[in-house]
Design a protein that fits this description.
This protein has helices spanning about 15-25, 55-75, 100-110, 145-155, 185, 190-200, and strands at about 5-10, 25-30, 80-90, 95, 115-125, 130-140, 175-180. The protein has one domain: Maf protein (Alpha-Beta Complex), CATH 3.90.950. It is about 30% helix and about 25% strand. It has about 210 residues and is an alpha/beta fold. It is built from six helices and seven strands. Strands 1, 2, 3, 4, 5, 6 and 7 form a seven-stranded mixed beta sheet that branches. It is globular and about 50 Å long. Helix 3 (about 100-110) packs across helix 4 (about 145-155). Strand 5 and strand 6 form a beta hairpin.
Amino acid sequence: MPATEQKIYLASKSPRRRELLRQIGVNFELLLLREQAPRGPDVTEEVLPGEHAADYVARVTREKAACAQQIMQARKLVPHAILAADTTVVVDDRILGKPADLTEAVDMLTSLSGRAHQVLTSIAVQHGEQVWQVTQSSDVIFSELTPEAIQTYCASPEPYDKAGAYGIQGSAAAFIQHIAGSYTGIMGLPLFETAQLLRQAGVRIL
């Protein structure tokens, strides 16, 4: 195990993940991956043919952690553990990422209305050559949503940077009838599992 340290790099631009790490007292510095540039994103989030949701979210997370480590080394930054994560929503074996536009957001929420779906968040902590990873899964049941409710929600900024076109911590909480699993996992960073991985990597937690 690496020597105990107090700081990590967070390879995510998600404000929710930042908030959750602060909640458990983790000192972090952002190490952001490129999303749009002439050469394209550092890590694409395209689903491979025949790839299952759990395999997909775990693979993308590992790629994010590995890419962040390359950036850290290329910039000659002080070495610290790197935390990466990815969240996806699954319904009928269909992987729902972030909606590109209003039409996609409406389609996603319509497919979730009145039924159960799964939210998978994979977390990877990389420190040197070692990688610790876990994928957490939660079940979410939506109430029946009227077309008017979906349109109103999709007219707000909330759906467009979130897998499945909704955030449990926002106004879409009114859609959710029941959850089984991790509330923070549905937000994008399951804190129990994250704390375990960081401790394994030698990061002091609480």
